[in-house]
Amino acid sequence: MTKLDKSIISKMNLDRLELGKYLRELRNSKGETLHQVSKGTDIDSPLLSKIERSERLPTSEQIKRLARYYKISEEKLKIQHVAEKILKDYGANEITFNAVKLVNEQLINYNKKNKN
Prior knowledge:
Elements: H1 6-12, H2 19-29, H3 34-41, H4 45-52, H5 60-70, H6 74-90, H7 94-115
């Protein structure tokens, strides 16, 4: 396998993909406890804690509840979720990078076909 250009990895800004960290920052910025968010989202506190520590990824339904609770874009959370899932499942390496490039190319072709 050839070496992945290190500048590509640094441009990925992996910290930005930490959905749990982002959700914890949202909660802290509102000055709320896990218990308060739990009541407002109907997601139990221990699970929220695991999500914030990036030990678990939220389900689609939990993403919807969290987005509604924090009044943020559900789409943004879903994008972060998918990106983090890819990296957690496959790692930040050349294969993952090339797979994401291929998906991007396929999406472009798909969109071109559907416009015609």
